[in-house]
Specification:
- The chain has two domains: 16-36 and 43-54 and 65-165, no CATH class; 176-268, no CATH class.
- The longest helix is centred in the N-terminal third of the chain and has 20 residues, at 46-65.
- It is built from five helices and twelve strands.
- Helix 4 links the parallel strand 1 (111-115) and strand 2 (141-145).
- By secondary structure, the chain is an alpha/beta fold.
- Residues 259-278 are annotated as: Disordered.
- InterPro entries: AmbAllergen, Pectin_lyas_fold, Pectin_lyase_fold/virulence, PEL.
- Keywords: Signal.
- GO terms for molecular function: pectate lyase activity.
């Protein structure tokens, strides 16, 4: 899927933890891989965190309505995109986080590591210059890419602590492998060319999909946008997943579940969704 904006679900998820896993190339993560324990690192006052997120979004939306040329209404995007020299100040992104990930530092205190080789030759002894070699280093690293590239990972990507994979740029390709627990607002993205599905989930997450454009591949067995992992129908039918204002193309379809009432998705809401036709 081509992502047009930073993914707001990363800000709302209740757990930002341990190792990041990926099964698809060309990454765009602002998240952090840090060793942690979800229970011991849980925020003691999650409601106040949610209120802080909403306040930041409201402030950013007001700035957007004030016709700032750089404003998007997304406080994360606005934080770094309004800097005309953002490419020279990439690490400023670490200071833009809100919500449960607001204290994550990733590779901010480390050097830049430039990925020059899109290959994934050896998962055990990766070649220097590859993404896999970068993420297993023990030191903090801010990982960027020398040029536009497609990385086909042969094995899941296991990241060491204090790493940031910064692939900001046009036509970045990724997908939401698995939403777990927490609340996820998937808003105003353009999903194309997924191989199996666009949004996966397990462990009863709440998924609120609004204003997205889903263009299914030509594979007739991969038209469904959603996939529930490690659960049977009797279980996942109670998970709150909804699609609202999404545009389905080329036979794409979203399988909803759970409650349809908007109140059930209050915690899985961030910025206001714009029409998917734009």
């Amino acid at each position: 899927m081509g992502i047009r904006s930073l993914v707001s679900w990363m800000l709302l998820a209740g757990v930002l933890c341990a190792h990041a896993h990926a099964h698809l190339g060309a990454a765009k993560w602002t998240g952090v891989a840090q060793h942690c324990n979800a229970s011991s690192h849980a925020d003691k006052d999650p409601e106040s965190v949610a209120e802080m997120v909403q306040k930041s979004i409201n402030n950013s939306t007001r700035r957007d309505l004030a016709y700032l040329s750089c404003g998007t209404g997304n406080p994360i995007d606005d934080c770094w995109r309004c800097d005309s020299n953002w490419e020279r100040n990439r690490k400023r992104l670490a200071d833009c986080a809100i919500g449960f990930g607001r204290n994550a530092i990733g590779g901010k205190n480390g050097r830049f590591y430039v990925v020059t080789d899109p290959g994934d030759y050896d998962a055990v002894n990766p070649r220097p210059g590859t993404l896999r070699h970068a993420v297993i280093q023990t030191e903090p690293l801010w990982i960027i890419f020398q040029r536009s590239m497609v990385i086909q990972l042969k094995e899941e990507l296991i990241m060491n602590s204090f790493k940031t994979i910064d692939g900001r740029g046009v036509n970045t390709v990724e997908y939401m492998h698995r939403c777990r627990h927490g609340y996820f607002h998937v808003v105003n993205n353009d999903y194309t060319h997924w191989e199996m599905y666009a949004i996966g989930g397990s462990a009863n997450p709440t998924v609120n999909s609004q204003g997205n454009r889903y263009s299914a591949p030509f594979n007739g067995f991969a038209k469904e946008v959603t996939k529930r992992e490690n659960s049977n129908g009797n279980e996942w039918q109670g998970w709150n997943w909804r699609s609202e204002g999404d545009l389905m193309l080329n036979g794409a379809f979203f399988t909803p579940s759970g409650a349809g009432a908007s109140s059930s998705y209050a915690k899985a809401s961030s910025l206001g969704a714009r029409p998917s036709s734009l």
